[in-house]
Structure formats: structure tokens, C-alpha cells
Design a protein that fits this description.
single chain; 295 residues; alpha/beta; seven-stranded mixed beta sheet; 7 strands; 44% helix; binds S-adenosyl-L-homocysteine
């Protein structure tokens, strides 16, 4: 095949996902297009902030009430949701000072809960990308219902190759979405879109290099979500290689365990709870926040 043939073949192929490069990303798009677990939707229905991530903080047992009480199920859903929103708040706390005229980028935005929270807090513009058309539609519809569609927008796009201008974003983040991509490619793209002095934040599960290799629990989590959990070492190395200098590395593992232990007792279990709890407890897996400066 000549160079010209190759160019023609590449550009004429219809791209279902802008920036899509791999069949794997097609699998992930399908996964999230089909995702409608009650643990995500019922929790989002509490106040209209739809998250696809986990929670942090102490469980409020007084608010939960007694397990025999008829209100317990409803209280449980509200409590799990409160902890998930608390997680997003901690991520936003690490973005640094953000002004109303700034633009933020949510890489792997899901149904957009974190984007809405970011706009409500900073008054700024928030651009999100997801592989799932269903999620992007959901997020945009929700922004429309809130009357913030001028400020909050989700689009279907590969986060490794976004349409955003070079150096224009004040901050960007991955909230539980970095385990679907190569970290060098991911941080190269964040580094491109962030202005110098901008802030990058991720909250993610990562395997602990102190344990040695990914444990059987970590392998189970990978299989369950069709993802590829990286190690803490890989995060720090890929950041260093892409002009992202960690300003804070926070181990949120002790803060997320109460959420998992509560969830494991609930009717909303998905079957993966034991793998999270066991791997957090045996030290093979960690829930971390890393905030880095783009230099
Ligand atoms: N950050 C959201 C959603 C997390 S779920 C939240 O906190 O609620 C993981 C998300 O990563 C999904 O929306 C999925 O579409 C997205 N994702 C995975 N790989 C991606 C890629 N290459 N490009 C864009 N989005 C991706």
C-alpha cells in the first residue's frame, strides 16, 4: 500500500466517535451506552446530579436510621449519593482559583454530575468528553433543564484527541476515567490543552507498587469494568514525562472504605463490592487524588 492509499483509507473511514482510535474504545462506548445500573440512576435522582464514581467520608448513621425502618432504603440511597457528591467536591477543591471566564475540561465526564457541580461553584464554562453518546445526551439534557447549557456541554469524543484549543483550559480532570487509557497519551493531551500554571486533578483507583503486582482483586475489577488499572508509579512517571508536577498526592483509601462497606450491605450491590473492600484492606489497591501543576 502506498502512502497515498493509507491516507485515503484513514480519512474515508466513518468515525463514529470523533478522535476514536481503537476497537477497545468502541467496547467502552458500548459498555457506557448500555449502563443503567440502579446504583447510578437512583442516586442521581436524589438531586439531579448524576455520578459514575464512588464516595468518600464518614457514614452518617443518624441520617440512615434503623435498618428495619421503612425509610431505610430511601435514606441509604441518599447517604450513598451524599458521599459520591462529597468525592466530587474534594476533586473541585483541588482545582485552585477558578474565575467565571475560565474554561474547565472534564475528561470522561459520564452523565455530567461533576461538570454541573463545577459550574455551580465557579460560574465558569465546563466542557466534557465521553465515549458514550447516551451519556453525552443525558448530560446535555440535564444542563438544559438547569438552564446552564451555555456553560456546561458534553460531547462524544476520545479524550486522547480532543478538539480543545492548545493552552486554553484553566484546569482539567479525570474523575475515575483514567483507567481506560494509556497514561502517557492521556497526560500529553491534558498538558496540551492546559495553560502553563493550570491545574490537573485525578481521582482514581490504582494498584499499589508496594504490593508488587496487581492482586487478584485488582484483576477482578479490571474484568468487571473492562478497564486497565494503572499503578501509582505509572501515574507519577507519566505526569513527570508530560510537564505535570504533582502538588498533592492524597490517599483517599481510608475515606472510601465506609462507602464500600455501606454499599455492600445495600440492595444496590453490583457484585464487585468484595473485590474493592478486600483489595483496599490488603493494601494492593488504593483510591488516590493527585493534583498536578502544568509547568
Ligand atoms: N467522570 C464521570 C464518569 C466516570 S465513568 C463521573 O465521575 O461521574 C468513566 C467515563 O470515562 C465514561 O463516561 C466513559 O465514557 C469515559 N471514557 C473512557 N475512556 C474514554 C476515552 N478514551 N475518551 C473519553 N471518555 C472516555
Amino acid at each position: 500500500m502506498t502512502g497515498t492509499d493509507l491516507t485515503t483509507a484513514t480519512t474515508s473511514a466513518p468515525a463514529a466517535i470523533p478522535g476514536q482510535a481503537t476497537p477497545y474504545q468502541g467496547d467502552i462506548a458500548r459498555y457506557w451506552n448500555n449502563e443503567a445500573r440502579p446504583v447510578n440512576l437512583r442516586l442521581g435522582d436524589v438531586d439531579g446530579l448524576y455520578h459514575h464514581h464512588y464516595g468518600i467520608g464518614d457514614v452518617d448513621h443518624a441520617a440512615l436510621g434503623d435498618a428495619d425502618d421503612s425509610a431505610y432504603d430511601k435514606n441509604l440511597v441518599e447517604e450513598l449519593h451524599r458521599l459520591e457528591s462529597a468525592q466530587a467536591k474534594v476533586l473541585l477543591d483541588h482545582l485552585g482559583p477558578i474565575g467565571r471566564t475560565d474554561t474547565l475540561v472534564d475528561a470522561g465526564c459520564g452523565r455530567g454530575g461533576s461538570m454541573v457541580m463545577a459550574h455551580q461553584r465557579f460560574g465558569c464554562k465546563v466542557e466534557g468528553v465521553t465515549l458514550s453518546a447516551k451519556q453525552a445526551d443525558f448530560a446535555n439534557q440535564r444542563a438544559g433543564e438547569l438552564g446552564i447549557e451555555e456553560h456546561v456541554r458534553a460531547r462524544v469524543c476520545n479524550m486522547l484527541s480532543t478538539p480543545f484549543e492548545t493552552g486554553r483550559a484553566a484546569a482539567s480532570w479525570n474523575n475515575e476515567s483514567s483507567m481506560y487509557v494509556d497514561l502517557d497519551d492521556l497526560f500529553a493531551e491534558h498538558s496540551r490543552i492546559l495553560g502553563v500554571g493550570g491545574r490537573y486533578v485525578t481521582i482514581t483507583g490504582c494498584w499499589n507498587p508496594r504490593y508488587g503486582q496487581p492482586s487478584k482483586w485488582v484483576s477482578q475489577i479490571n474484568a468487571h469494568f473492562e478497564c486497565n488499572i494503572h499503578s501509582r508509579r505509572e501515574y507519577l512517571r507519566a505526569m513527570a514525562d508530560n510537564r505535570l508536577v504533582p502538588q498533592a498526592v492524597i490517599d483517599l483509601t481510608p475515606d472510601t472504605l465506609p462507602y464500600w462497606e455501606l454499599r455492600a450491605t445495600s440492595p444496590l450491590v453490583t457484585g464487585i463490592e468484595e473485590a474493592f473492600i478486600n483489595s483496599y484492606k490488603d493494601g494492593s489497591f488504593q483510591y488516590v487524588l493527585i493534583a498536578a501543576d502544568r509547568v
